[in-house]
Amino acid sequence: MSDKTNMFKAYIDEEAEDKEVKKTDVDKIDNETIEEDKESNSFKSPDKITDDQLSNHQNLFSRSSTRVEIVEDEVHDISSSLPKYILPWHDNISYREKYTQSLIDAGYTTVELIATASSDEIFDATNIPIELVEEMIELSHNWHEFTFDTAASILEKRKDMTRVSTGCASVDHMLGGGIETKSITEFYGEFITGKTQICMQTALMTALPVELGGLDSNVVYIDTEGSFRPERIVQMAAKHKIDPELILKKIFVARAHNSDIQMKLVNNVINLAKHHEIKLLIIDSLTSNFRSEFIGKHSLVERQQKLNRHLQQLMRVADILDLAVVITNQVMSSMDEYDKTVIPVGGNILAHGSTHRIHFTKQGSGTAVRNAKLVASPSLPLSSTSFMITKYGIEDIR
Ligand code: GTP
Ligand code: MG
User: Fold this and answer.
1) What's the pTM?
2) For residue 355, how far is its CA from the centre of ligand 1 (angstroms)?
3) Which residues in 70-135 belong to E strands, given as ranges?
């Protein structure tokens, strides 16, 4: 394997098998990569991650993706599409191959991702010396243009904006016709208020064919709590009278066992998007890993800084890929002893990071009715609505 080829190990789905690609020994690569990762300390706590989890992360989104190595010919093909997918300094001797590989392993596979990332964020994810990271970012600016757009042209573009349906007319209406692309929409609330249900239903709606009200697009679903249930999507699909298999094949699911993996998965959505159109990225929930890893007041600052980087990263991916980001969030009791209301986790960082925030509450105990209240939005009037959780999913109250 040449040095050059080595740098462009990639994740390609089975469609790529039709092209001239050479499969490598997956186990061998994964073992090598695990060793490399341990060596380069890409993961903060590699000992906490089992080999299975790690190889799951390496293979990233399950479905039918196969890890393959691009043969030399294809590297040249892709090179012609510079600057999108190739890190332009790969021939530069001042950057050892190891650093390029660390970037790719951490999900920084495009110039755009590097050009728009902060040096701290890349340093945290790769452990590449900070001065080299800064140099790489500066180099990437040669390939990535930062320009202005007029408000008029932004308005024109927004008119054509794709919206993702939640499958519940009243919630879509509250959101101005559906969930916006290039934005982060946050559903927060207490347990069993329907956050995961709406995520699964929105995934279904995005994957549905256009004639059935969907976008016929793929979805990325990052599950941090282990609550994703394909069976539930099959149940929800029944009302659309569609073969559920067609839907499930379009939903790429990955389990994020910690916040490092969660962030790497988000960067790797760019890889996946090279071969699949993706209109929706879901993280259910955004905050649970952060909450369990950073405990106590002394780690609050660190947690918030990392959460901030995660949100910036999500916004970048939403922008670059023109997709909708949906996140869920938990709540906690207000610190004010006279105020018995609950507040979303994540403080000001998340309050500013989310574009639209919707608060879900139960309407009494033992009922299937839930309330949804739009509590923050840069463009929509704040309003509320109700829905029901039924065997078909999230439904309007008739
Ligand atoms: P946490 O993740 O624990 O914070 O809660 P959540 O807000 O994500 O809750 P979730 O979306 O999982 O909603 C749980 C609610 O959906 C419960 O009231 C369940 O009874 C209801 N639910 C789940 N599956 C079904 C089903 O098949 N039929 C019906 N009728 N209700 C269901
Ligand atoms: Mg949930």
Assistant:
1) 0.77
2) 25
3) none
